[in-house]
Here is the input.
Amino acid sequence: MTTDWLIACMIGLGKLFLHPLLYISIAYCLFIGYLRVKRERHDFNTKVYRNTMELRSLLSHGLIWGLLLSCLTLASGMTIPLAAMLIMAGVTILAVLTMNKRIVSPVYTVGLTFFILFFLYDRELKLPILQDAINQLDRSIYPTLVILIGLLLIAEGFLIVSNGSKKVSPQLQVSKRGQPIGVYVSQRIWLIPMFVMIPGGQLPAPFDWYPVFSIGDMAISPIVLPILIGFKQKVHGMLPEQAIRAHGKKVGALGVVITALAIVGYWYPMLALITVILAIIGRELLHYSQRAMDERLPFYFSKSKLGVQILGVIPQSPADKMGLVKGEVISKINGVIVREEEELYRALQINRAHCKLEVIDNNEQIRFVQRALFDGEHYELGILFVDDQLKESGQAG
Here is the structure.
């Protein structure tokens, strides 16, 4: 029996490469990266991160959560019928086509799948492609989908904290008063490949109580289901890492609450419907409350009276190697006070082989950094800042 299960799992894993979402997600990440680099070049005349940054995040972090959730779903025997998988894939593809990364969150894609199945159950509808799969549906599919929403919300929260807050992209905007400001945008697509059970196949249940979350007494087989999680957040009122991590923790906490309610809803089906509604409303409230809070804050990245504020640092540039970070303010270069872009340029020309900077860090403490400059390095340290004289574009300093 162990050999049969191992072979079935390997076959189920191989089916991942036949799923269109795998290739759609790769193309989507490359397109997002292309648009981001195009915007960065427009704002700063240089790209900040490589075109493939989003693609490298697609599976590297999703695989970890795919493994964790697969262990959980295999142990519990979470069973999802083929009709739910097909509808979920179609809804996810439509969400991707909207180009709104936030809508690709499982709380919306799996939630909409839940309501579609709820509408189709026990209705006399003729659906040429899905009819046979719809006929196999059982009411216990509803709490199973809600449990899946809760687990994926927990994964989404952890992914936002661990990966969504890293390598966020700077952007220039014009405020309502016509002044240029700096904002940060984090946008990610994560692919979580996780094992679930589908009805049919030749595998008998290894235990009398297995599977725990099932749709009836029938043979089952494992398959890898690709789940896409999309995320986008724009921050201008504080350091982006702090805002994004705080938001991710709230999403994870919401996932814990939804999972607990969903498990109870397995025995009380009406609670499953209420829990899905709460999950969608809760995720929306988190999004709009975060945006409202950020809009109430003053602009973090704007012209500073203390010097030239660092909006961003190009990776592997001299500024990066000196340990300069976003939000800090350069008050002196080579002993010369700098308050404007042109003053910064002139001060750098005093000594092209070596530079010494006086920096006010994000804790409002003064520190000094210095470094020798070498031929072939970024010609202006690799600092990105808000240019007061340009209203719609920036400059790499």
The chain has a mean pLDDT of 83. The chain has twelve helices and eleven strands. The first strand starts at residue 169 and ends at 174. The longest helix spans residues 269-296.
